[in-house]
Amino acid sequence: MSETVRKPVLYSAVQPSGTLTIGNYIGALRNFVKLEKDYDCLFCMADLHALTVRQEPAALRRRTAELAALYIACGLDPEKNIIYAQSHVPMHAELAWILNCFTYMGELSRMTQFKDKSAKHADNINAGLFTYPVLMAADILLYQTDVVPVGADQKQHLEICRDIAERFNSVYGDVFKIPEPYIAKSAAARIMALNDPGSKMSKSGEPDSFISMADTPDDVRRKLRRAVTDSDGEIRVDPENKPGVTNLITICAAMSGKTAEEVCAELQGKGYGALKDATTEAVVSVLSPIQAEQKRILADKQYINDVLKNGSERASALAFRTLRKVYKKVGLYQL
Ligand code: TYM
């Protein structure tokens, strides 16, 4: 990406707060790769966001490098795209402060992720968890972003980002581009937990609830065998009455490049064992080459550092322009 932005801008980020799941891959990363060629893209490791939940420092550092390698292993070219760590571009935290002053307590307290995470981490309901969506808005707005590919769970955060940007623009003129979310229309936007298809698959869930991007073929097979289905035996998409089976069909389709209808037609009458086998095969065929490539990339620490240094320099140049404009508009004294 040249520093003179020409194509529309795509921005997305993932928290290096655990080993990514196939939910992250299907809902987000897979779309990054699909959209990459039509946009000037920034892909961020949201390490500051990860701090809203206690992290083991060494693990956070390791996972940040692993996530950078995963982005590249999934097919994102670090020459064309900007791949960087959020903490390496201080303008994110600086803009977040300004935007905090344009965000209301009431709207933040309505965020479902805040409510969920406060319930899960009742001993650590910190202010960062509360203002999480403001930092996310700063991430997106710093780069005059056109489109943000995310899973369905981030829809509300995208809405508040647009509200904050519109509020700011209504006072100071057109400072921020208003970003559009890019969320799959299908069930692929929300991959559900294998052991509880009523809740989202999450990297912080119980071990058997998710398939991680680092799982071996045996792990994948075992977890899918145990996945919750139902007792009617019919393979069809019906999220309301058959959430477990629908989730497996969605995973199988996304990982094999087929449509859900094709998966159902091929497996008709063969039973859930066949659906689980086909899903295992599809998942392993995507994960194995990515894992091998990620391992190869991670072995070269200098390369990862070069990518991140280059990424943060290019991101900083873009972010600085927006932040300077914001500082001027709000009346901060200029030297
Ligand atoms: P995070 O790290 O929780 O998830 C990364 C991406 O994966 C998507 N995702 C899912 N999609 C489908 N099914 C699931 N079960 C599933 N679980 C997660 C998420 O929607 C997300 O797209 N707040 C963001 C990180 C972030 C960000 C940003 C994203 C920080 N700044 C700016 C976009 C733009 C998050 O927590 O992602």
Main sheet strand line-up = 1-2-3
What is the alpha-carbon Rg in Å? 21 Å
Low-confidence stretches: none
Whole-Å distance between the termini?
30 Å
Strand content: 5-15%
SS class: mainly alpha
Task: Walk me through this protein's architecture.
The protein has 335 residues and is mainly alpha-helical. The protein has 2 domains: 9-183 and 300-330, 3-Layer(aba) Sandwich (Rossmann fold), CATH 3.40.50; 207-294, Orthogonal Bundle (Tyrosyl-Transfer RNA Synthetase). It has 13 helices and 5 strands. It has helices spanning 22-35, 47-50, 57-73, 91-100, 105-109, 112-120, 127-141, 155-172, 217-225, 243-256, 260-267, 272-298, 301-330, and strands at residues 9-14, 40-45, 82-85, 147-149, 180-182. It has a 3-stranded parallel beta sheet with strand order 1-2-3. The chain has a two-stranded parallel ribbon with strand order 4-5. Strand 4, helix 8 and strand 5 (180-182) form a beta-alpha-beta unit. The longest helix is centred in the C-terminal third of the chain and has 30 residues, at 301-330. The two termini are 30 Å apart. The structure holds tryptophanyl-5'AMP (TYM). The site of tryptophanyl-5'AMP has 27 residues, from strand 1, helix 1 and helix 7.
